[in-house]
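We both want to read discrete structure tokens more fluently, so let's practise on a single case. Would you supply a protein for us yourself, any chain you care to pick? Would you write everything just below, so we can both look at the same thing?
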Amino acid sequence: MKLGIILQSNKPEYAWNTFRLGITALKAGHQVEIFLMNEGSELDAVPNTKDFDISMKVAEFKELKGEIYACGTCLKVRGKAESKICSVSTMSDLLKMVERSDKVLVFG
């Protein structure tokens, strides 16, 4: 299955659970893409906490060949030119992800 996930939140628990699901799906043999938009585009600035090791989950997701994209417009609104953890993308890229996904989930 091809799973598309849209992360719209910068809340640590939302981000952590998004990547936990992505990792679980990758380990089960599925393809997973995560698109960061709205506050989710701030993922590289979300701090790890005692309960939510986000940077570790992102690293594991990438090691398992999961794909991550960030909305360029959302980054620009926040005064950022790029994301430290993924490529900058567009609404057209999000549409392509939706079209090639068997299922699309939204967190946040």
Summary: The first helix runs from residue 12 to 27. The radius of gyration is 13 Å. The chain has four helices and five strands.
